[in-house]
Amino acid sequence: MGTKVRTAFVVILTIVFSVSLSAEDVSAKKKHRNDDEFHAVKTWKQGYREGWALDRINQVHWRLDKVPLSNQGAGSGITIYIIDTGDGDEDCHGHATVVASVAAGDEYGVAPAAEIVTVNALNCEGSGTAKDVIAAVKIVAQIADPETSVVNMSLGGPAKASVDAAVAKLAEKMPVVVAAGNESTDACEKTPARVPAAITVAGYDNNNLRSIFSNFGSCVDIWAPGTAIDGIDKNGDRVQWSGTSLSTAIISGAVAFIASRDGITTKQAADKMIQTAARPYLIDARLNGKSAYCLLIGD
Fold first, then answer.
1. Entry pTM
2. Which of 50, 77, 197, 205 is 20–30 Å from 159 (CA)?
C-alpha cells in the first residue's frame, strides 16, 4: 500500500455474530442481526475506469476531465486513525487495509503523506460489539493529538446510544468521519451515522447518481465517491470496492489534505471542507430533487 502504518492497540473481541459482507449475504442475514453488532461497511466489487474518484473530487462539473487530484506530499504531519479490522499483517479481514489505501495510500490515496494508525474494533469476519467500538474510540481519545488527527469509522450498526455518546465525545476534540451505511435507507437510523457531531458520509458514482446502496437523509453531512473505488488490498493487489466505507476514507483523506496544505488544525480543515463543498445535482428521488453537498478539493 505504501502507507506508513502502525497498530495502536488490539481490542480483545467478544463477537456476537459474524457477518459476511457481500451484498447478497448482508441482505440474507440482516433479519438475524443482533442489536449489539457493529460491522465493517462495504458492499461489492465492481469495475469502473481506474482513478475516477481522485479525478472527481477536484472539479465541480460532472463530466470527468481526466485530470486527477494533485496530491504529492498531501497529508504531511497529519495522522488518520482508522477504527476498523486492523491493517497490513495484522488485518486478517482486509477491510481496514483497503480503507487505509483510499485515505492515504501512495497509489490511490487522497493524502498519501499522512500517517495511518489502526485501532482494532472488529474481528476477522468484520464484526464486533458496541463494547469493542467504544473501547477503540476511548483509545483514540487517549493517544491522538486533537490538532493533527482525524478519525475514520467505516463501520456501522443499529442505533446504539452508548456508542453515539462515545463518538460524540471524541468528535468534540477532533474530526470523526463516519459511514452513512449501505442499506439504502435513512442514515439517521444507524450508529454512528446518526451522531450530529460526526461527519456522516454518503456515496455516489461517476455519473452523479447516488450509489445504489448508499444511505441518505438529513444526517448526511457530505457526499463522496462510493462506487468502484480503487484501493490496495492486504495482498498488495489493486482492487475496486464499492461502499460508503470508501466514501468515508476519501473524506478522512480530504481533511488531512486540507489541514496539511493550509497549515490549519484538522477541526478547521473539516469545517473548511464542509463550507467549500460543491452542490452538483445528484440524481436520486430519495433526495427529493435537492442537490447535496459533495466533496470538492481545489489543488
1. 0.87
2. 205
- Please tell me the distance from the alpha carbon of residue 258 to that of residue 111, in angstroms, as a whole number: 9
Residue 282 φ then ψ, to 5°: -95, 125
User: 271 lies in a domain?
Assistant: yes
CA dihedral in degrees (29, 34, 39, 43; nearest 10)? 20
Domain of 128, CATH number, reads: 3.40.50.200
- CA dist 141 and 267 (Å) reads 15
134 closest CA partner among 181, 200, 192: 192
Show Cβ contacts of residue 281 under 8 Å, excluding neighbours closer than 6 positions: 208, 291
Task: Classify the phi-psi angles of 208: left when phi > 0, otherwise alpha if psi is within -120 to 50, otherwise beta.
Answer: left
CB 229 within 8 A of CB 246: yes
pLDDT in tens, 196-241: 999 999 999 988 889 999 999 999 999 999 999 999 999 999 999 9
**Contact, 216 vs 73, CB < 8 A?**
no
As annotated, the active-site residues are 84, 95, 245
- Whether residue 296 lies inside any domain: the answer is no
Residue with cell 440482516: 30
The model's pLDDT over 14-67, given as tens digits with 9 standing for 90+, comes to: 222 222 233 333 333 333 345 667 787 654 555 567 889 999 898 867 678 888
Q: Which domain holds residue 104?
A: 5-287
